[in-house]
Amino acid sequence: MSASEDPGEERLSVTPPKTWATGVPGVAHAIQYSLQQTSPRRTALTLLNINQTKGFDCPGCAWPEPAPNQRHRNEYCENGAKHINDEAT
User: Fold this and answer.
1) Residue-level pLDDT at 89
2) Cα 31 to Cα 40: distance, rounded to the nearest angstrom
3) Which end of the chain has the lower number of beta carbons within 10 A, N or C?
């Protein structure tokens, strides 16, 4: 096989981007992980304030900053939620 041949390119497909990065399974896993570390109240307060206008920004997020009225309640990635929760304990 030469350097210009890549057998993986034959099966390569490109799809339109998703409108979210993690979805419900990622949020559920972040909640599950958080509940192992802190109380239900602290878990809720932490996760509901990540990347919110009156909350705090996740230091590891590469999310663009949406307008304050266009932010979603769960505007974070699973890894960011896990790391923030580790720091909250």
Assistant:
1) 66
2) 9
3) N
